[in-house]
Amino acid sequence: MKIGLFIPCYVDAVYPEVGVATYKLLTSLGLDVEYPLNQTCCGQPMANAGFEKQAIPLAEKFEDKFKGFDYVVAPSVSCTAFVKINYPRLLQGKHECTTSDKIMDVVEFLHDVVKVDKLPGKFPHKVSLHNSCHGVRELGLSSPSEQNEPKFNKIKDLLQLKEGIEVVEPERPDECCGFGGMFSVEETAVCEQMGKDKVKRHMDTGAEFITGPDCSCLMHMAGVAKKQNLNIQFKHVAEILAAGL
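Above: the chain's sequence. Below: its structure in token form.
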């Protein structure tokens, strides 16, 4: 099983430690992982802003860069969801689309494919889990509250493998934090208030950390917390799962 590691732009530029943690986590499980050089943006920002045509060359390059792998794994639910859901449409009639069927978020990959049942290391902290919208409603990492179906949470399943951790969830566990990519630029006031509400619900759990599968959500909430001088820390789920490696 050959795995291509995709590190999205904002992880590479702002949170490189998340990329490093993801690589360490995957290789610690004995997996064959390669990071293809010269990889670029998946095209999500352009498409979300209404410039889909500008995303097509990036999608074609992404396809060529990762065509030789059995799986493409990324520490980002939004980028993973964009490739999985939008590439077949963007590339229709232009380029063979293969990555949409083999790209997975790191949580989804570890839970569903590798079926991890133990992890080394400790994380003796109380952690509030943030269920990012793309992960809930497009990748199925957890059950959406608006649907009458059995509750599940793949992120929580993995986190609970770490010794010493206490995982909690806020009231309205899958409510949006307000970031939403372009939404945060176009509706700044609404975005900010949603962020404040979400951070407060996380803090009401008494947690020391807020974690989740997408740096963009964590970045937004961390900005809200910093602006309000709130005593709460933020870590991507991959960093917690890789703790002690």
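Strands lie at 2-5, 32-34, 71-74, 103-105, 126-129, 166-168, 209-212, 233-236.
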